[in-house]
Amino acid sequence: MRFVVLVEGKTEKKSLKSFLKKWLDVNGLAGVGIDIFSHRSASTLFSDAPSRARDLLAAPDGKDIIAVFSLIDLYGAGIYPSDRTTVADRYEWGKREMESRADNVRYRHFFAVHETEAWLFSQPECLPTKVARSLLRHSGAPEQVNFDHPPSDLLRRQYLKHVKRGYGKTTDGPSLFAKLDPVIACEKCPHLKAMLDEMLQLAKDAGF
Predict the structure, then answer these.
(1) In total, how many domains does the chain have?
(2) pTM of the predicted model, to two decimals?
(3) What is the mean pLDDT of the chain?
């Protein structure tokens, strides 16, 4: 049995499988697997994920899927109606829109607030020392790193300053996420916690 997670692109595909598997393992669900499928962009994922989830669940091996999740960065997605401006409004609208289009009880949609890189701020010790010191003030509430100065932009600027090169999403990201403890990240990132708690509950409902 496994979860399937539909993500935006290469960064998430390379980074999130081990992170999510670590969460399942530490919660006694080592027998549950994780498959990650990437899309070209947030807009493509927004367009395609509900129908792709239905197809995956209806396939011959769909019975082995506990649930299909999709995950989009709240920042930069460009999918929201113009009157949706706050985190809560965008999150609620996007989740309702995606899940209603799929119309399947084994599909769930989530947002990384404001980007998956925010989760790295929960444990600055995973980052290069000088970068960690510069971002320490964000470690208590990583998901409040916002639309104006999103996490990956803060990382890029601090890497340029202290490491003398930019932060590489597909090069630095996977190694940093490999160090990340999902239990600690959940304690500091409520929206992440909601997604991972849902994963646990669905696994338990499936008999694990």
Answers:
(1) 1
(2) 0.95
(3) 96
